[in-house]
Specification:
Elements lengths: L18 E7 L12 E5 L2 E5 L2 E7 L14 E3 L17 E3 L18
Antiparallel strand pairs: 1-4, 2-3, 5-6
Length: about 110
């Protein structure tokens, strides 16, 4: 099937009221065959980019309820099969126990996920 899977775990010690961001991206020099480029076609123009994932970790106390923020959940079936040259919609369902608004969108620059 020509598929690749990987997993990584990191342990980070946090103090009360910590906030930080962790990011994983494919290096600019990467030509690893198991990373597929992501292509977005709009208005007859195609843009191809590499995958990048960033997560913000926020254990500060919320002013609205006095509790530490609970992160949102996003459910995606993995792996996603995307046929070559066939537009495919990937549905990402999200939920947040705190009732926060969770949105998925295309990034506007390489400085955001």
């Amino acid at each position: 099937l020509n598929l690749a899977f990987s997993q990584r775990s990191d342990i980070v010690s946090l103090a009360a009221n910590d906030y930080f961001t962790v990011s994983h991206s494919i290096p600019n020099t990467s030509t690893a065959g198991f990373y597929r480029p992501l292509t977005l076609s709009t208005g007859g123009t195609s843009t191809t980019s590499r995958w990048n994932i960033t997560a913000s970790i926020d254990v500060r106390v919320r002013p609205d309820n006095g509790l530490i923020n609970t992160p949102p959940l996003a459910n995606v079936m993995s792996p996603q099969g995307i046929p070559l040259n066939i537009p495919t919609q990937i549905v990402i369902s999200t939920f947040d126990i705190d009732g926060d608004n969770v949105r998925c969108r295309w990034s506007n620059s390489s400085l955001e996920c």
